[in-house]
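re: that chain from earlier
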Amino acid sequence: MKCKLNIHQGNYIADYGIWILLTILFLPTFIKLYTFRWSALEYGHAYFILPISIYLIFRKRKKIKELSQKSKTSPSKLGIFLFIFGIFIYNFGYRQNYMVLTTFSLIPILWGLIEMLYGKKSRQEVTFPIVYLLLMVPPPFALIDYFTLPLRYATVLCTERILRILNYSIQREGLMLIVNGKKIMISGACSGFRFLFTLLALGLLYIYFKKSPLRDKLILSLFILPLALLGNIIRVTIISLLNVHFGKEIAEGFLHTFSGIVIFIFLIWGLIAFDYIFKKIGWFKEYE
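^ sequence. v structure.
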């Protein structure tokens, strides 16, 4: 009795084999990321980026299957280039023990593999989930230090201005505010640098699921960072007021428990408000 293997079954087996090999290749990198690198950076949102991206791609599996059956069987030159480029980056980053490059290399490798295996249109279907993976790439510590200080100064200046408008007795000494005689130090955590990435991840996910034309989504996404910066200033102002009126313990409790939720709600309502305004003035189209 002869055993015959259907050509499509053979393709599926080969595909699964490739994805298993890719998982094995990146397993050491993600063990390091999940066990210490992200926690060292206080990069809390990064833990959820990969599962979310996998879920978004999984939602497209039927569409990808349909498109792959209609696409050409010859491998895409762009796909081959992206795959080789990604492998080169991974190899260099792995040899240099540079987590930024080894993590980033997953993006061109994924893009290249999907285009080679399933075609150009399939790759276009998963553009957002793959680009979304950028938010899990750990930034270099030097880059964090470079941006944190200017953000801290911007935050302390804006908070000082708001508290003056509210008629509080306030003095500023560098990055320290003295409000009604109480000293408030604007630390690195108050800069909002890491907070911006969390809000960017949540805001982009909200916009992705919105039923709107691509142009409108791209325009709306431009408002995420300004809203996140404004939200962080409001967060620091609230913490400062709580410190003045209720003490340091209450202020720190709000910082760790409620501030993220409050600012996330502020961000989403801000995006909804801009979406509503732009639709009213005719910049955005009504989508049914």
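The chain has two domains: 7-137, 142-280.
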